[in-house]
Amino acid sequence: MNDETTPVGADEGTSAAGTWLELSIECDQEAVEAVSEILSRAASGGVSVEQPFTTEQEGLAATPMLDAPVTLRAYLPGIDRTAAEDAITATRERLGHLTAFDLRPIGELQVREVHEEDWASAWKEHFPVMRLGRRIVIKPTWREYDPEPDDVIIALDPGMAFGTGLHPTTRLCLVGLERWADEGIVAGARTFDVGSGSGVLAVGAALLGAEPVRAVDTDPIAVEATMQNAARNGVTVTASQGSLPIDEGPFDLVFANLVASILVELAAPLADSVRPGDASPGSGGRLLASGIFVDREAEVRRAFAAAGMRVIRREQETDWVSLDLERPGA
Ligand code: SAH
């Protein structure tokens, strides 16, 4: 056992049940996907990605520092000490293999004991008000913000669910949503969000007039967060635990901010969930596929081409790619 590991339950008077081990590690943008995957094998509750940012307007606006290393964090329950130590050892080994095969710099794995009462709110400091695109603003519920006239404000408390707007893949989706709104295809659109996380995309679409909005996520925490965030914003999103296929389609607009491997696996049912066009070009429903690490783009494109989807536009931020796809008529 590495001596960086804090012994669990060493604090007198603290219940082990409320104790967590925080695993954190700094790495390059390029290594985020691989390192997240390793951390998520140890911590079932998910992995948070903290992008460093600079703030302006006394903390009311933030600009992500896209080239700076990011910090990934994951939490293990401290109550079962042996299981936690085994998981940490395995994680260190996997990270060791990764550094051996990969040239990208990855920091040391840090392990720290945290108590639920401190930790439940500590991450909130790292979550500023953010403007994405021209007029979409994500406002954490605990922050104040003076809106500009055209702002579309998404009030958000992601809790444990993914989707704070700090991650490039989420930002690419919100910018895509804004572009769809500029094309005039969001108001009244039947919309589907696959893997809704905090619900940020579903809620954003609903605020821009999409209706009805349906969301699914395999993670029950995300389903709960999606419903709460919809309620917070006074919009209707129907969220449930699950995935594709779905028999409620077809939808005019579909968001799938998943990882490349899942997009490839789900390409056919995703395409089926999108409304096909008629003979006129541009009449088909649209799918925004995001979360594509740039190395995996060709593979994802092949899968969607085979499923009959046509790429209309491609966007990239750091090493993350999103594809705006249309389902043309037969
Ligand atoms: N839409 C949010 C969250 C994206 S993270 C955003 O853009 O920020 C991806 C989400 O997809 C996670 O919440 C994860 O639980 C969920 N997910 C992963 N695999 C899935 C699958 N096969 N079907 C549905 N949801 C899935």
Q: How would you sum up this structure, described in words?
A:
It contains eight helices and 16 strands. It has a seven-stranded mixed beta sheet with strand order 12-11-10-13-14-16-15, sandwiched between helices. It is α/β, with parallel strands linked by helices. It binds S-adenosyl-L-homocysteine.
Notable traits:
330 residues, alpha/beta, 7-stranded mixed sheet, 4-stranded antiparallel sheet, globular, binds S-adenosyl-L-homocysteine
Briefly summarize what is shown.
The chain is 30% helix and 27% strand.
**Unreliable residue runs:** 1-14
Q: Helix and strand string, N-terminal first? A: EHEEEEHEHEEEHEHEHEEHEHEE
Order of strands across the main sheet: 12-11-10-13-14-16-15
Biggest sheet statistics: 7 strands, mixed
How are the SSEs ordered, and which strands pair?
Layout: E1 19-27, H1 32-42, E2 47-50, E3 53-56, E4 61-64, E5 70-77, H2 81-101, E6 110-115, H3 116-122, E7 130-132, E8 136-140, E9 152-156, H4 168-183, E10 191-194, H5 200-207, E11 213-217, H6 220-232, E12 237-241, E13 253-257, H7 260-272, E14 286-293, H8 297-306, E15 310-317, E16 320-326
Parallel strand pairs: 8-9, 10-11, 10-13, 11-12, 13-14
Antiparallel strand pairs: 1-5, 1-6, 2-5, 3-4, 7-8, 14-16, 15-16
Helix pairs in contact: 1-2, 4-5, 7-8
The chain binds S-adenosyl-L-homocysteine (SAH).
Residues 161-163, 170, 173, 194-197, 200-201, 216-219, 222, 243, 257-258, 262 line the site of S-adenosyl-L-homocysteine.
